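Any chance you could type out a protein's amino acid sequence plus the matching backbone structure tokens because I've never seen that pairing?

——
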Amino acid sequence: MPPNCPDENRGDFVIFCGRLLERWEKVGYTENRFRKRRASADMFWAIIWKNLLGFDFIIFLAAALNGVVFYFARRFALQLYKKLHMNVFVPSHRRHPEKVADAVRNVNEEDVVLLRKRSEGLYSIFINITAVFPLLGILGTVISLIPMVSDMANMQNNFFAALTSTFWGLVFAIVFKLLDSMLSSKIEDNDKSVALLLARKSEEEEKQGEET
């Protein structure tokens, strides 16, 4: 700015320079904040991948095993449901006793017992593994927290890394608990159907004994 410039123009120039500096500071602050967020995201994914090769791998392995158990438990439960529901639940055993008797005779008890045994056995394994996930998460966190005693300088990163096991344990526990709500109702229906089948078979045997 020339020295002989009027005071008004000089004041406007100073204001303009001040606003320009503020904008540059805001841009620099935004860039720094973006870099920090990006660094935090990079650190987050680095810790996630690192822990997947550690104790978290056991949690994912248990989740894969539990998923396979759920698949076969649901498969056998559906087979038993289809076999019993259309045969045992004939509109009414009082209005159509002959239809009910024929349907009960056509049901193979050995197949019913085998499917029920398989579905309930796998379901028992499924709910037990599901209950273990929160404990696995806590165990992984405790194992990860032990080395923090000898490395207090990097406490923040170590503490964050320790929490991933608890996170995955809770996530899989919630997911499988939702799946359990879908499967448990089918298991309960099958138990009622089997009980009804046995009751009607005993009635049919009693009738045949009376006739003879």
Q: What stands out?
A: The chain has five helices and no strands. The chain has two domains: 1-42, 54-211. The radius of gyration is 34 Å. Residues 54-211 form one domain.
